[in-house]
Structure formats: C-alpha cells, structure tokens
Write a structure and sequence with these properties.
6-stranded mixed β-sheet, 5-stranded antiparallel β-sheet, 15 strands
C-alpha cells in the first residue's frame, strides 16, 4: 500500500472521509463520489481521501483488460481532484483473498471513519462485503454514504459502457460519460489503448494540433508524429 499526502497543510492527526474504487476512467460518476467525499469531509471536520487500486494489478494482471488510461494518468487525475490523501493498493494475492471484515479493519487502522461509495459497491474476498455490511465489519467505526446510480439519457455512467462506446466508434457518447474528451498517451511510439477503439478515421488533436488519424486492427496506421504524444479524440469520421 502506498500513501500519498497531497495537502501538506492538512492535520496528520485528522481522521478521514474516503471514497474507494478502481477509478479507471475518473468519469462523471467517479467525480460525483469524490465531490461528495470532499463535502462530507469539510462538514465533519475530516480530511478527504481517495482509496484506489493499481491498474497494473487490478486489471491487466487479474483480468487481462486494457484500462481506459494508464496508471500514471489515472493517479494524476485523482491527485488533481483536491483531496488531502491518496492511498494506492496493490491487488496482489494477499489482498485478493482478504475477507471483507479484514478489509474494513484495515481501513479503520488507516483512520478512515466515513466512506462514500456507489450503490453497487462490494469488497473483500468474492465481493462478500457490500454497502449493508460496512458498519458491522468496521465494528461501528465507519459510517457510509451511498450514492445512487448516475445516468445520462437513461444510460448508467460506467467504465464498461464507455468502453462499449469506444468499441463502436461513438466517441461523442463516450466523452459525454467521461465528462471530458477521451485521450491516449503515446509512449515510445506505443499506445495500448488504441486497441479499445473501432477501426476507422478519427478527428483528433495531437499535442493540441487538429489532425485526422486512422486506426486499423488496434494500430495507428498513418501516425508519423513524435514517439511521445497525447491524442485527444472527438469524433469518428468514417
């Protein structure tokens, strides 16, 4: 577990209101959790905290999925939300088999006293813990605020739906659920996230310059730019 203190003026003796999740996309529903966490922290004189999981262990190594953003990008977005602390947990074998009771006790040892979670939140081995067991599993030390399902046009805001839109080439719909334009980072000429997108031609910004690119079989076939670049997607043209 890695603890990153983001607000040096926050009292180290304070307890925390936290929200927890993989936060793969930091989309609009994730942003709602974080804002409510910050609001409750302020009202109850607590510090605010985001608890998340390393994408390299929680997705790539466990389910072999490609995340919407890489770990560095995700942590940067979370660090810029204005919370006081960021806790990053490696989803290793020890954590994977941890009981729901032990997980809540781990949170209490880290001074968590209030959790803000989504309506479908589960935790612990096989997801046996849920929103109804938080108070009991924490021996009465952690209260919970449950955030209802967030939707746009009757569509649940979630990472799965965003990935489905990208696979269909519906960039506008994916961007609407994210709350910002989808982008990928090219590092060393490689960009694994390209494989999330449907084959076709796209209207993009490459390092803030308007261009069109073509994706074919998970590769950029007409990209001749720098080995390190940010490509922001707005629309599939064909």
């Amino acid at each position: 577990m890695r603890i990153i203190d983001l607000n040096p003026t926050s009292s180290p003796s304070k307890c925390f209101c936290a929200t927890i999740g993989i936060f793969e996309g930091v989309h609009l529903a994730h942003q709602a959790l974080i804002e409510e966490c910050k609001r409750i922290a302020k009202d109850q004189d607590l510090a605010s905290c985001i608890i998340t999981f390393n994408l390299q262990t929680s997705l790539a190594k466990v389910t072999n999925q490609i995340p919407l953003f890489d770990e560095e990008d995700k942590l940067l977005r979370l660090s810029n939300t204005g919370v006081d602390r960021l806790i990053v947990i490696d989803f290793d074998e020890n954590f994977k088999t941890m009981s729901h009771q032990d997980f809540m006790m781990l949170l209490t040892k880290n001074q968590i006293r209030h959790l803000v979670v989504g309506f479908d939140f589960t935790y612990g081995f096989n997801g046996l813990g849920n929103v109804k067991t938080i108070l009991e599993d924490s021996q009465g030390k952690i209260k919970a605020t449950i955030i209802p399902k967030k939707t746009i046009n009757d569509q649940k805001i979630g990472t799965t739906q965003i990935k489905e839109y990208l696979a269909l080439g519906n960039i506008e719909a994916a961007n609407q659920l994210l709350g910002f334009p989808y982008y990928i980072k090219i590092q060393g000429g490689q960009a694994p996230q390209v494989s999330l997108l449907r084959n076709g031609k796209y209207q993009v910004l490459i390092n803030k310059a308007k261009q069109m690119i073509t994706i074919q079989n998970g590769k950029l076939v007409d990209y001749h730019g720098e080995n390190t670049a940010t490509i922001t997607f707005f629309k599939q043209l064909e």
